[in-house]
Amino acid sequence: MNFRNISTIYRKELKSFFYSPVAYIIMVVFLIITGWFFTSNLFVMGLVSMRGVFDVIPFILLFFIPAITMRSFSEEKKSGTIELLLTKPVTDMEIVVGKFISNVVLTALTILPTVVYVVSLSFLGRLDFGAIITAYIGVILMCSIYISIGLFASSLTENQVVAFIISFLMIFALFMLNKVLMFMPTFLVTILEYISSDYHFLSISRGVLDTRTLIYYFSGILIFLLLTKTSLEKRKWS
Amino acid sequence: MSIKVENLTKYYGEQAAVNDISFEVKTGEIVGFLGPNGAGKSTTMKMITTYLTPSNGKIFVDGIDISEDSLAVRKKIGYLPEQNPLYNDMNVVDYLVYAAELQSIDKSKINDAVKKMIKVCGLEDVRHKDIGELSKGYRQRVGLAQALIHDPDVLLLDEPTSGLDPNQIIEIRKLIKDIGKQKTLMLSTHILQEVQASCSRVIIINKGEIVADNTTEALQKQFEGQYKTKLIIKQNPKTDAANIKAELKSIKDVEGVKVSSDDDNKTWIIEITNSKGSDTREEIFKKIVSKNLELIELKQEEASLEEIFRKLTN
Q1: Closest of B127, B125, B123 to residue B91, by C-alpha
Q2: Taking CB atoms and an 8 Å limit, are B88 and A79 in contact across chains?
Q3: Which of A9, A87, A237 sits opposite B50 (nearest CB)?
Q4: CA distances from B51 to A143, B98, B146 (A)
Q5: A237 within some domain
Q6: Domain assignment of residue A32, yes or no
Q7: Do the domain assignments include residue A238?
Q8: B11-26 pLDDT, tens per residue?
Q9: How many distinct structural domains can be found in chain A?
Q10: Which residues in chain A touch residue B102, judged by CB atoms under 8 angstroms apart?
Q11: Where a domain ends, among B191, B220, B249?
Q12: Min Cα separation A9/chain B (Å)
């Protein structure tokens, strides 16, 4: 892998988010929703805690990530620019990784303003900064695995709406797994629990970040990036 | 820099889009890749650019097997795909910089490369405009500029003038001709004038198979000497089409006669094919005069590339 190529793709992709109003709209909506939960926790319930914000983020991500990843490959497929990109001296994996990083950076930029909440809370009472930092890491990891799923979905179709729906369904299934465990046969419970993204996020937001969780996220990301690459290569054989 | 294609085959499912074709494009040649729509031109080009993988056969660019070192091959190739896809929301300079970076041009040389392309392709006036706002002619120039930015030795242009108006076509053709001087250039088209205007050699492909591969002149020569005579005669109530046809057929060296009437039945339009190498104009004239008919027009045509193309692909 050539890092210069990855960085070229990453920079172009990140810029192109801001060519269209979509990125701004998504960011504003994200901040409005988290802001609502922050203020209601603080002023209505009088809690000095980031809990409310971190509790709602996984739900926002269900829609937020598919919305930002849906165009990544679909648009290039539809306009035909994918043919230009794939005939440049760049490997398919470099393209996938470049696009992945740009999506992760965009989500990180969207989440960044919520640090203002943390700062303002720190004036009002004692905060467990360790737990908050871990929770932020958890959010980024969760975003990353969702983004890799979103990229895969986007590489499957040239229709952005279809890409959105596919990635939403996949992310939703992954998110819901640990909530339907009671209906599952016992021997599957531990496996399904491990596959569920929310299970890992819950343990992180409680301040626990262990290798099991890290392996889960990193292997998940890798699997979906490889699937995306394979899906791009499909053109060669069909 | 040469392109060598050996027994190339590509199946889409059961159907062979390209069926066992072999050809070579030598360094510095400008080759027209000609064929009706759906003949397999684009598929062949996509395989040379490594976008598609052949079902069978080998492709060498500058002696490198594209299946072995596809990245090295891509660096040598400049490619303008069919329909000229571009990022509509980027501006021209940003896009060319992006194309240059993807071609791994040295950071210090990117600016110069972009400036040069803007000059060569005549993009000075639109350099800061979004690509989506450009006219088709300018879009085509941007497409050419991105294909040329790394000064490739091999240039593949897939229908470079499709969808342009006549003025733009002439401009783009001129540009291609200028650029093509130092490069190995392959250009696909279904328009014959395109080949006559720009190419030294032509490969005609039909239904996935090569039906002709020769220099433009040699192809014309192959069919040369086969003349067609066209004449228009005023209609006369004393005789009829069948009669005239029979009379003309009786002339030596005339092989075929086709008589048709014009829309308001005032004249007969007659097409005569002659046997090879013969000129029958004089006899035809004498015949017409001897029948007391009025000749309005008489002209002789040589087989054009267009007819050769039609003959080969029908």
Answers
A1: B127
A2: yes
A3: A87
A4: 32, 19, 17
A5: no
A6: yes
A7: no
A8: 888 888 899 999 999 8
A9: 1
A10: 5, 8-9, 85, 88-90
A11: B220
A12: 8
